[in-house]
């Protein structure tokens, strides 16, 4: 018996699959945003190089936090980066107030006190990220325990006024 000739190519062979195209109104992919950001930074780099040096050296703890933080929303990274940037910003302003050149940027980067301020601010970010959730959880625990005590007191008063039959599932007049 002869096999029928099939017009379809065998599985795994034939034309390669094309990626589905996004809908016309769909938002652009994240990778194109990164590409545009990279192009803009590359074009501005000759003018902003001293500032970039200070920012990159000063924001090292934030980069580490980004790598270490495995949570989906990156709350730790956001907390640390915000305080880290608060430590870097005064030195950026100092660089901008003077002439923005490589010598001034390197003077800031090698200044131990400046690095201590930048990294110390990131350290406070770590401290806030690690302590505040525990503190808030303990406050909620106290609030919920107080609420339970109030509800138990209300329950006791209702039982005194209405009797034990209220606590059971039967009606006061009898079972229906």
Kindly describe this structure.
With 176 residues, the protein is mainly α. The N and C termini lie far apart (78 Å). Helix 1 crosses helix 4 (102-110). It is elongated. The chain has five helices and no strands. The mean pLDDT is 86.
Report the order of strands and helices.
Answer: HHHHH
Integer average pLDDT:
86
Class by alpha and beta content: mainly alpha
Outline the low-pLDDT stretches: none
> What share of residues are in beta strands?
under 5%
**Rg (C-alpha, Å):** 32 Å
Instruction: Compute the number of helices.
Output: 5
Number of strands: 0
Shape, please?
elongated
Largest sheet: none
Distance between the termini: 78 Å
Helix content: 55-70%
């Amino acid at each position: 018996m002869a096999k029928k000739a099939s017009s379809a190519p065998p599985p795994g062979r034939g034309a390669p699959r094309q990626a589905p195209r996004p809908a016309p109104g769909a938002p652009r992919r994240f990778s194109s945003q990164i590409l545009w950001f990279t192009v803009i930074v590359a074009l501005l780099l000759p003018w902003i190089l001293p500032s970039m040096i200070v920012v990159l050296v000063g924001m090292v703890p934030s980069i580490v936090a980004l790598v270490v933080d495995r949570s989906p929303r990156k709350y730790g990274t956001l907390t640390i980066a915000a305080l880290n940037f608060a430590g870097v910003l005064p030195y950026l302003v100092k660089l901008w107030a003077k002439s923005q050149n490589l010598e001034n940027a390197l003077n800031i980067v090698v200044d131990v006190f400046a690095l201590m301020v930048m990294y110390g601010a990131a350290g406070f970010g770590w401290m806030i990220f690690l302590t505040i959730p525990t503190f808030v959880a303990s406050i909620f625990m106290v609030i919920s325990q107080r609420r339970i005590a109030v509800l138990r007191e209300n329950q006791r008063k209702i039982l005194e006024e209405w009797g034990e039959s209220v606590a059971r599932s039967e009606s006061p007049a009898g079972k229906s």
